[in-house]
Amino acid sequence: MTALLEEIIVTASPARVFAAITELWPPERPNPVIGKAVVLGGSIAGLLAARVLADHADSVVIIDRDELRGTGPRRGVPQSTQLHALLPGGLLHLERLFPGFNREALALGAVAVPPESRVTYVDGRRKVVVPDESEILAGSRPFLEGLVRRRVLQLPNVKVVQARGTGLVIDGDAVTGVRTDSDGMDGVESADLVVDAMGRSSRLSDWLEQGGWERPPLRRMTLDLNYATAYFRRREQNPEHTVVMSAYTEKSRVDVAGVAFFAVEDDRWMLMMAGYGDDRPGSTRDDLLRRMRSDFPPEFAALAGEELIGDIATYRHPDSRRRDYHALRRFPAGLVSVGDAVASFNPVYGQGMTSAALHAAALSMYLRSAPDLRAPAREFFALQKVVVDAAWTTSTSADLALPHVDGPYPPGYALTKPIADRVLNATVTDVRIARVFNEVVSMLRHPNDLAKPGIVLRSLLIR
Predict the structure, then answer these.
(1) Could you count the other beta carbons within 10 Å of the beta carbon of residue 202?
(2) Beta strand pairing status for 335-337 and 193-196?
(3) For the purposes of burial, counting CB atoms within 10 Å of the CB of 436, is it exposed (0-12), middle (13-18) or buried (19 or more)?
(4) In terms of domain of life, where is this protein from (predicted)?
(5) pTM for the predicted model, two decimal places
(6) What is the pLDDT of residue 8?
(7) Residue 220's beta-bridge partner residues?
(8) Which CATH architecture fits 112-131+220-318?
């Protein structure tokens, strides 16, 4: 076991472990420790897991019920019509996994979003611009997923099987394969390691229980989030502002959680509007345009004057949820879980694809530690927990402030919330605090960095 993995288990230093995961580079040359790996699910998390496994397995098989060689939204990704962006933490790791990824994406129409081109409002107040070197990559979900898919499927030891996973094959204390159904034909795909990347609706918990194993503890935070996305024609090739966001806290007393628009591929603007509970802002053309002209900062009124392309797409996100595999006392060897199958967050914060990239980095770190694959992958789940905790803390701490959200609350929430509110308020005008906050939200730094005495004291002194 490496010193870093030992530290996770023995001393639990989340910020240091998170930094090590975010700074990880792929190995210089493949080092197979696995014969055959099977990935259940071909979305972003599954594709990135397959990319990592290609360095450590003789062969990798991706199983998905959808045709993965096409383009456009997929049935298995119902949220793909909604606004997505690749945060700096995720973009950094994708560039390491796929050298030249950023350059290729830009050449094909993605839009670079440097800090100076972003405009952010909180409750109608424009935030200070934070000078740094991190970039967001803006593009639609099918576009970004298509780029990743093409690069993964170019790998000589990766192939795709179009089928539906129906269960695990377990021999003693280890998973040895996956049961499949392809057009009514049952089959088995043998494996030395199985990766669950089946998303929020993953059936792995049921399969484990059916096999006599424990279900992972499931935590849920009810959000009842509704959001709508629309495309507008973009006439400017290089607009001054490529992203405009306006977020609203409980103090604003408006029925909108947030609204944003991004420049994306094919000379389009992609706009998202979100609300909670019975509030479904922007779900009709008239409501969307009326709100853009009257309820938000002037940039949105200007966009409302552009040509609206196609229909408005809506989506409902009922809750944030996480399955705590790290907490299981009994778990079979030869099995891990990644992406939304482990933790799915409020999509308003845009953490999904970046979290998937960091789960892949955790998997790479685990496989390079010379693990005993005949034993449960507890070291991997310990690494992954650090990433999940970071994203969960960032998103749920904001969601707990919403009037309709009633927990679960973390220990000490009543004491820490007033301080967190002061730090958030300070980001509007203080460049130093805003820079740390942005790096935490972008998943470049651990949330504990916002709780350092210097940051807290500085925020308390701001009036």
Answers:
(1) 22
(2) parallel
(3) buried
(4) Bacteria
(5) 0.91
(6) 56
(7) 321
(8) 2-Layer Sandwich (3.30)
